[in-house]
Amino acid sequence: MKVQYIAAAEEEVPDIKDESTVVGKQFKALVSDPLIEKLRKQVPEIGHQIEYILAHAANSINGGARAKKQAAVGNKLKVSPSSSPFGAGAAKSSVSAKSKVTDAYSRFEKSGSPEEWVAARIAKYK
User: Fold this and answer.
1) What are the pLDDT digits (tens) for 8-25?
2) Which among 6, 62, 109, 116 counts the fewest CB atoms within 10 Å?
3) What does the chain look like in DSSP terms, one character per residue?
C-alpha cells in the first residue's frame, strides 16, 4: 500500500524525486520533520498516505507548478455561421407586443369573462 502511494505521489508530482528543485527540498523537509514522525507513531493508519499528502502539499506551497500539456497538432475545429436566417438572431414576428395587449383588453371588454381579463394581464406583462 505504501509503495502505491509513493508511486502515485512521484507520478503526480515528479519534482519530489529531484532534491535540487524547490518542491523536492520542501518535500524532503516536510517528510523529515519530527512532527510527522510523531504523527506516524500516534496515527499509524495515516502512515501510508502521509508522503502522498506531503508531496501535494509541497507542490501546492510552491505554486502548484505542473507540466503544461502541449497544444494539439493539426487543424482545430472552426464554427461557421449558419446560412439560414432562422435561429437565435432571426427577425421577430411583425405583430407588436403593444397590439397584442390592446387586442387582449378589447376581447375582455367585449366578453367580460375572467379568463379574458387574466389573458390581458398576462399579455401586458409578457
Assistant:
1) 888 888 888 888 888 888
2) 109
3) -HHHHHHHHHHH-GGGG-TTSHHHHHHHHHHT-HHHHHHHHH-GGGTTTHHHHHHHHHHHHTT---PPPPPPPSPPP-----SSS-STTSPPPSS-HHHHHHHHHHHHHHH--HHHHHHHHHHHH-
Sole residue written with cell 532534491: 19
| 88-121 tens-digit pLDDT | 555 555 667 788 889 988 998 999 888 888 888 8
How far, in Å, CA of 20 to CA of 24, rounded? 7
Give the list of residues 6+ apart from residue 52 with CB closer than 8 angstroms, or none. Answer: 5, 6, 8, 9
Band (68; pLDDT cuts 50, 70, 90): very low
